[in-house]
C-alpha cells in the first residue's frame, strides 16, 4: 500500500511530467508508460536490486523524518521502462525530423527546378472552365490530365484520341496505350493518384481542385499541385479554393492567374416541391443519399408504368455509362433517372430537373468519425448544377425537393457562399515509413503510422489525411509475413472495408503472395465461383458488385506485382462480362426488388402501390399517412432491403407498424421520419434522443428564450442536430 501511494504521488508531480515531456513523453504516452511501470512494480515477484533499494528508501517508516529517498528518484527507472515499451524515445529527434511535414514543396526538386505558370479556372458546374483547360491541353506538344474519377480520365482519353491527339489512359487498374506498339504517347489522362511527378510536360490539368481538402484523398491533389513538372498548370474547380492555391504557390515562388467563369445556362430553384411521384416529367432526376432509397424510389416509379435508369456509386463504371446512355437517348422510353450524388461528376447527363429526395447525408469528418448532417453548399451546387447542361436538349435547369419541408432548407443552402478551402491534405510516403521502420524495427505498420501522425508537424495550410482505412488493412494483414514495402502497397489498395467479401479476398491475396505463389486466373475463378449467373434478387446483385471490386483489386495489384498477379488480361476480359451481367441486373432492378421483398417479408409487396411520399406531408403539424389504416411507408423500405443489404449498411431499421405514432409523440416528425426511413436512426436511438433533449431543457442548456439561441438562430436555421 505504501509503494502504491508513493507511485501515485510520483505520477502527479509536475516536475516529473515536465521531465517526461523533455524526453519525448507527451501526456498520453506519459500516462500509458506510468500504468505499465506501476503494473510492473506491483505485480512482479521481484524487481532489480537498485530499484528495490530506492523503493525501500522512499517507503521508510512514516513516523520518521525520511531523508534517504524521494519519489523523484524513481524517474531514471521509469524512463528506462518507458523506453522499453516505447522504443522511439531513444531516437525521438531523428523521428521528428523524418515526420516534419512543414515544407512539402521541398519534396519535389524537379518541379522546383523550373518556373511554372499556374492558371486557375474558377466557376460553378456547367460553366465551361474545364473545357477551356482541356483545349489548351489538346493544343500542347505534351500534357497530362489529372481527374478524380476513372470515368473522367476515360472521357478525356477518348476525346483526345478522337481529336487526333494520341493520348494514353492510366488508372490504378488499367493502362491503355494510344498506339499499338505500346509506346508512351506525349499526352496522358489519369486518375490523380497515378500522375507522375518526374515526367516533364508542357501542360498539366488538375480537375476538381477543391478536393484538395478531402479528408481521405486530399493528399493526391496536394502532390499534383506541388509536384507536377509542367510549364503550365491549369487548375479547375470552385472559387473557394483560389485563396489556398494562391498561398501554396506563394511558398513555391509561383504566381497564380485566375480566370472566372459564369454558368452557361440558367438554373432555377422552383417554389414548389414534387410531393408525389405522380408529378414526374421526362428529364427528371431524383437524387437519393442511400442505396435503400434508390431501390425504394425506382420501385415506386416503375409501379406507375414509368421506366427509370439507376446510377449509384458502387456500380461498375461501364454500367454507369450504359445507364447514362439509356437515360440520354431520346429514342429510349427511359426518361427518369434515380441516382445518388455519384452523378455530381464524371457523367454527362441530359437532366431537366434535379429533385432532392433528401437533404440529409451521412458523411465522414476529418477524424474519420461518421456524422449525419445536411448536405453542404458545395455538394448541393455540384449536384443541382447537373440540370440543364450546356449543349443538351434542355436550355435551362431546375432544382427542387421531393418534400415541401426540405425546400426552404435547400434554398438556404444554395444561397449560402461556399466556405473557403482552408487546408491541403498530406499523407506519409513509403520512404518516410521505411525510415521510421529502420529506427523502430519491431513496430507494426499500424503502430508506425500512429507514431508518425502523433509526431508529425504540419504548417497551418496543411493537414494529415485520415488514415483509418490504411490502419484497418494494416491490422488485418499484420499476421502475414510480408516485407515492409509490400505490406505498405497492400494497405494502400483501394477497397471498401465495409464489404466483407472484398476484405477477405485481400487477405487471401496477401497470404498467397507471402508464400510466393502466383495468383493465377484459375485460382481467382475458383475463389469467386466464376462463371456467375444474372442476379435473381438484390442480395445477388450486391454480391456481383463485390466480385467486380475483387477484379479491380486484382488488376490494381497486377500493376504493382506483375509476376505475382500474372493474368491481368484474362481478368479484364471476365470483368467486362461481369459488367454486362450487372447491367442486366440493374435494368431489371424492380424485379430483383420484388424478389427480395418476397424473401424478406412475404406480403409486403402489397404496399408497393402506396405513395410513400405523401406520408411525409405535414398536416396540422403532424406527420399524416396517405391513407388511413395504410401500412407504414417505412415498411416498404424495410421489405425491399434484403438481409444482405442490412449487413452491408451495418444499420438496423425498425419495422414497427406504430412508427407514425412514435413520430407524432416526438414532435419532430419531418426529420425523424426521414432519418428512420433512411435507416440512419432506430426507435431506440429516437427514444434516447428524446430523453436527452428533455434533460437539456430541464437544465436550461437550450432554453428557447435564451440569449444564446437568439444570437445564433439565423445561423442555425436549416441545420440538423447530429
TrEMBL record:
EC number: 3.6.4.13
Domain Helicase C-terminal: residue ranges: 269-437
Coiled coil location: none
GO biological process, one term: mitochondrial RNA 3'-end processing
One annotated Gene Ontology cellular component of this protein: mitochondrial degradosome
Chief place of localization: mitochondrion
Top-level taxonomic group: Eukaryota
Skewed-composition ranges (Basic and acidic residues): 706-722
Keyword Mitochondrion annotated: yes
SUPFAM superfamilies tied to this protein: P-loop containing nucleoside triphosphate hydrolases
GO terms for MF: ATP binding; hydrolase activity; RNA helicase activity
Region feature Disordered, mapped onto this chain: 692-722
Cofactor: Mg(2+); Mn(2+)
Record keywords, A-Z: ATP-binding, Helicase, Hydrolase, Mitochondrion, Nucleotide-binding, Transit peptide
Protein location: Mitochondrion
Listed Pfam families: DEXQc_Suv3, Helicase_C, SUV3_C, Suv3_C_1, Suv3_N
Reactions mediated catalytically: ATP + H2O = ADP + phosphate + H(+)
Record CDD domains: DEXQc_Suv3, SF2_C_suv3
Assigned protein family: Belongs to the helicase family.
The protein's name in its UniProt record: ATP-dependent RNA helicase SUPV3L1, mitochondrial
Organism: Serilophus lunatus
Gene that specifies this protein: Supv3l1
